[in-house]
Design brief:
Strand content: under 5%
Helix content: 40-55%
Radius of gyration: 15 Å
Number of helices: 3
Distance between the termini: 42 Å
Number of strands: 0
Order of helices and strands: HHH
Shape: globular
Length: 77
């Protein structure tokens, strides 16, 4: 698989249910589209370096940190 030209764009397919959920999630935020939000999130993930293998479970400390962040962002109570 070759990389797209610098500055070029490609299509990323996601399930329709996920698209609908993300669309609801960004309503009232500064994001103008699901695509803009997805690019933001993917850039954030990519900036963090390499991903851990999916089979590896996260520890309680990481889980607590995720919950704290989601609470601060208003996604959970």
């Amino acid at each position: 698989m070759s990389a797209p030209e610098s500055g070029g764009k490609v299509t990323l397919k996601i399930p329709a249910e996920l698209y609908a959920k993300l669309s609801e999630m960004i309503d009232g935020t500064g994001f103008r589209s699901v695509t803009e939000f997805a690019v933001y999130v993917l850039r954030d993930v990519a900036a963090g370096g390499k991903l851990e293998p999916k089979a590896q479970s996260i520890g309680q400390v990481e889980l607590d940190a995720i919950r704290t962040r989601l609470r601060a962002l208003g996604y959970i109570e």
